[in-house]
Amino acid sequence: MNAQVKPKDYRELLIGCGNNRNKKLKTLEIPDTWQGLTTLDIDAGSGCDVVHDLNVLPLPFADDSFDEIHAYEVLEHCGVQGDWRFFFAQFEEFYRILKPGGIFAATCPTFDSIWTWGDPGHTRQVNEGSLIFLVQPEYAQIGKTAMTDYRPWYKADFDVIAKKTEGEFFAFVLQAIKPARGANGDKR
Questions:
Q1: pTM of the entire predicted model
Q2: Do residues 174 and 103 make contact, with C-beta atoms less than 8 angstroms apart?
């Protein structure tokens, strides 16, 4: 299927939209334009469709609602660095509301950007290392590396299908793998 031609029921969610509705990340899996956009923000003045604080879980959407979720410069405003319970709970929520094979596309400041900790609203940093913990087969490293085993608490599963650092931005695209795989890659 051409990535630019999607079914009429194709749905995207732009979280932390503010006043910007631009689609920043586009890949072979992601069309260039919005097909069926829903916007979410904490600020009702942004004109968003849904007013909701991303620090409050669960998110106000049904399971398997969206083909894509986009989060541009918003994840660093959620949770607190070191709060692994919230980190995994939030990504499990994104996983829950994505359709099987759905895409999560995000940008964050790089670890060395002045904005990462210079912005008083930033409370955590998401980087390439963080993504490893979202991919169930990566847990095969347990006992071979210093990787912490979060499998008793984290049940979602993504594949990292794109990642890129450009200037002060780290961009990544995840794909929801449903059902989740185990550490050996087998479906649970």
A1: 0.91
A2: yes
